[in-house]
Every structure is written in structure tokens, then in C-alpha cells.
Amino acid sequence: MSSEGPPKLALWRRVQQDIEQQIRDGSLPPGTRLPSESQLATSFDVHRHTVRRAIARLKEKELVTVVHGKGAYVADHQICYRVGRATRMTTAILRTGRTAQRRVLSSTEIPADKRLAALLSLPVGHPICRVRTLRMIDDQPVSLTTYFYPLPRFAGISRSIAETGSVSEALSRYGVTKMIRNDMHFRASLPSMQEAKTLRIGRSKPLVELLSVNLDASGVPVQHVHGKIVSEALDVVVSLND
Description:
Layout: H1 11-24, H2 37-44, H3 48-60, E1 64-67, E2 71-74, E3 79-83, H4 89-95, E4 100-111, H5 114-119, E5 127-137, E6 140-150, H6 157-164, H7 167-172, E7 180-189, H8 193-199, E8 207-215, E9 221-230, E10 234-238
Parallel strand pairs: 3-10
Antiparallel strand pairs: 1-2, 4-5, 5-6, 6-9, 7-8, 8-9
Helix pairs in contact: 1-3, 2-3
């Protein structure tokens, strides 16, 4: 029987995890300037190159920002969401090591009005499943999203979303394993009384609205999305290279 214990973490990883823990437990709040590389090297009794690698990893995880000539600062709570033709918000959240959850608030069958019919390439009056969901990051509400799905193709989609907690995984049950955004619109708005209550924000807190139509691999519209995001929760960036 081997007497070897668990493998030791690399020095840079130990430094990175220690600083990351201080960020996550609030010991290092957003905007705090980290000690200099020399100070951190002395504090952890490691070489400056070790500290530099740890800081680089924290930057990759978007936990710190590095300002040339000034040092590293604890990033605010915004998550950088790079919107492209195929990127998903969940991916952006998980990349930072934070927890993403989705809750189904309601599900209703409605007839497609003229606007929805045009967006989803359906005849007016065609049945549609409207699903309203709440997105949580680390138990903090950050967005309300309404999805519209053509029926009968996506019958039971709300149950699948509730069971998996993921729209992508739910859609995969219907054979949709890849989606491409056909278009996307951005606009700003203030929350209604109910939206403010659900998102735990004041009525004066602005929301970023994202509206998109998503296609399956065959180019058929499968989903219209109307998301309302708390502006301070996400840094939305449009990627022209995706």
C-alpha cells in the first residue's frame, strides 16, 4: 500500500487559490488594489514569477484586472458576457467559477401574434409555448428571460428546462444541439414593480434588454428570446469574430 499523500499544489496555484478565496469571501472587496508583486512574493515566501503566474490566472478568471503601471485590482461583480452568434451566458458565468441557476417561473400556450409569427416564420395564430425564467448567479437574481417556442415541436419544453436547469440541455432533448443567433437587438428599460421585486432591485435600476431569434443547424427558427438583465450584473460585449 502506497504511503504517498495527495499531490502538492504548484506554488503559483496555492497563491492563486489563497487570493481567490479572499476575493470570494469578501476579504478583498471589488476595487481593492492588490499588494505589489514584491509584497505578495514576500508574504507567500515565493518568487515574483510565481506571483505573476497566479495573478495571470486570476485575470483569466476575470477576478482581477491589471492596469499597466498601477497594478492589479479586484474586479467588480460584473461578468463579461461576449455575445456572438453561438455564445451562451451560462458559459460566461461558469468560466468565472461562479454558480449559475435557472428557475422556470411560468409556462403558457399562446397563439402567435403578427410579430411572433414573423420572428419564428410561422402563420399568425400558430400555437407557441411561452416560458418565463429567472437566472441566478450565486443565489443572486440577475435576469428575467421569456422564451417562445413553436408547438408542437417543443411540447413539454418548460418541464425539460425545469428538470435540467439549462435551456441548452433541454433543447438537446429535442435534437437541437447547436443554435445560431439570426439577429439580436439591444435596448434599455426600467423594471416594472413585479420585475424589481423578483430581481431584488429598485425601480430606478436600469435593465439591459436583449432580444434575439435563434436558429437550429438547418436554419429553422426554434426560439425567440427576450431577456432583461440587471445592468450591473453583466458587462455585455458584442463579439464580431464569433
